[in-house]
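Course assignment 3, question 2. Fill in each field.
Student: A.L.
Task: Predict the tertiary structure for the chain below.
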Amino acid sequence: MRASTSAIGLLTEVNRLRAILRRIAMKGVGMRRRDILIGAGGALVLAGGATAGWRSAVGAMGGFDSYAGGLRAPMPAGPNIADLIRYATLAANGHNTQPWRFRVGESTIDILPDLSRATPVVDPDNHHLFVSLGCAAENLLIAATATGRAGQLETNAGGERIRYSFSRAEAHLHPLLAAIPRRQSTRAEYDGRSVSAADIEALRQSAETPGVRLVLLTDRARINQVRDLIVAGNDAQMADAAFMAELKRWLRFNPRSAMASGDGLFSAASGNPVLPEFLGGLAFDTFFAAGAENDKYARQIDSSAGIAIFLAEHEDKAHWIAVGRACQRFALAATASGLKHAFVNQPVEVARLRPELAALIGERGMRPDIIMRFGYGPTLPFSPRRPVNAVLA
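Answer field:
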C-alpha cells in the first residue's frame, strides 16, 4: 500500500522537527527548559501546524477544557451513586495514576486498591497508593454527607479496603463540598504572599485526624532547609534511570493523549507546552535535566507561603489512609480559602532523606508521609480523570 501524500508530508515534517530540536539542543546551553520547549513548540507550529495530522495528534485545549468541565460539573440535585464516585475520583493521588476501584453495594461503597496502577520505583511499598485511597475516601464522605447519604468510613484490619456505609438522611451542606471540583495540584510559582495566622490555624484544624500529625512551616529559615532536601531528593531521583522511565510512562504531552488515557501528568496542567507525543518524548529525553528542575523547585518553594508535612503515628496501611484523609481535607480547606497547593514529596520518596527531614521538623524517629507547599498562585488547566464506569470493580 502506498503512503498518502499527507502521511509523507507529516513524516517529512517529523524529520525536520527532529533536526530543529538537535540545533536547539546545541545552542541551548544555559537556556531554561521551558524556554527551549516553547521555542521548539513555536517552530513546530510553523513547520507542521497546517497539517491535519498535526491537529489530530495534539488535540485542542478547548476540547480538553470542555472534557475537564464535565468531570468537575457541580453536584446535581438528587445525585446518584455515580455522582458521588465522580467526586471521589477528583481526589489528589500520586502521578495521577488514580489507583482505586469502587465496589457498590445496597448501602455501601467500597474503595479498593488497584495494584495494576502502582508505581513500584517511586513508591515501592505502595505507601502513597494507600494515601491516595484515603484522599478519595474523604471526598466520598464529604460528597455523600452533603447530599443525603450520611454514613461512616471504616478501614478493615489489613487496610486493604475502605468501606463507606450509609443510609438515607437529610442533606447537610458541607463547607468543603464546593472545593472538591475546584481543587488542583498547582505546579507553578506562587506570588510570595504570606497567609494570615487565622487562616493557618483554620488549615491546621481542618486536617486534625486521629493517628496523624501535621507540622506547618511558615518561617523562611525552616522552609529553606526543607527546600534544600526537596532539591537533594529531586537530584537523586533524576539520576535514577528507572525513576525517569517510570515517570515518563505517566506523562501526557497533549490534550488528545490526556483525554484518551484519562490519567497521568498532563503537561499543560503544570504550565508546560502542549506537544505531539513523539516530540514530547524526545523533548523529555533531551531537555529534562536535573539542574533546570532543581532550579524550578527552588523557585517554587521560595514563592510559597508555607509547607505542610503530614506524619502517621504508625507505618501501616490504615494510618497511610488516615494521612490521605487529613491531607485531602487540608487541600480542600486551602482551596476554599483561595490558596493553591502542590505536592513536593521527594524527601519522603528518597528513603535516606526521611530521617533528616523528620529531625528537622522535630519528629525524630518518625516517617514523614506527605509534603505539600501552599500559597496564592495561578489557576492552571485541570488534570484528567477516568470516567466512573472505568473505576467500578
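Instructor remarks: The first strand starts at residue 100 and ends at 104. DSSP finds 15 helices and ten strands in the chain.
Grade: pending
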